[in-house]
Design goal:
Shape of chain B: globular
Mean pLDDT of chain B: 95
Oligomer: heterodimer
Strand content of chain B: over 45%
Low-confidence stretches of chain A: none
Helix content of chain B: under 10%
Number of helices of chain A: 0
Structural class of chain A: mainly beta
Structural class of chain B: mainly beta
Chain lengths: 114, 111
Amino acid sequence: NAGVMQNPRHLVRRRGQEARLRCSPMKGHSHVYWYRQLPEEGLKFMVYLQKENIIDESGMPKERFSAEFPKEGPSILRIQQVVRGDSAAYFCASSPPSGVGEQYFGPGTRLTVT
Amino acid sequence: KQEVTQIPAALSVPEGENLVLNCSFTDSAIYNLQWFRQDPGKGLTSLLLIQSSQREQTSGRLNASLDKSSGRSTLYIAASQPGDSATYLCAVSWGAQKLVFGQGTRLTINP
């Protein structure tokens, strides 16, 4: 059973460009979470999605950030008009629809904004 | 506010020692608590998960305990090895959804 897949692993964008980060959850997992780890800071929750639904986006910046988890395909975290402060590691986690809520993390996407 | 704190921020011990990492949390009404390991530049590896009804979990040389009433969890590592060097993260869920992370303890095991 493959783990959580994220791509790309590294992404470089110039200020003002768009960044698209993709996450494929583990097989059988229908819950996806995105977290951000800023340099020298801890991991912070961004958004929790189930198929075709955003359940909790309390950690998402109000502007420029959006997330989706379509019926088919990976979850996408989209950052429009990136700024230097968006440079961070973005981690995706998934969990099954039932159980004790254990989350399994992907390897992360390291975004660098130049 | 629901917060997680890990002390110390960094710890260095000689190989072979047993050690304890600490995690404290506000609001004892947790759903579960997970301990993770993160190597530099890498993702998170789940080590142990303790449900709110449990007192401890064990995996190999690792033992995690949970005391909800005092808002504390400890991760005990027996017979430490250089390969245990990493950052250890404690994360708490208060609703089976998002995790709130501590800042981590950076552990160095010296050969």
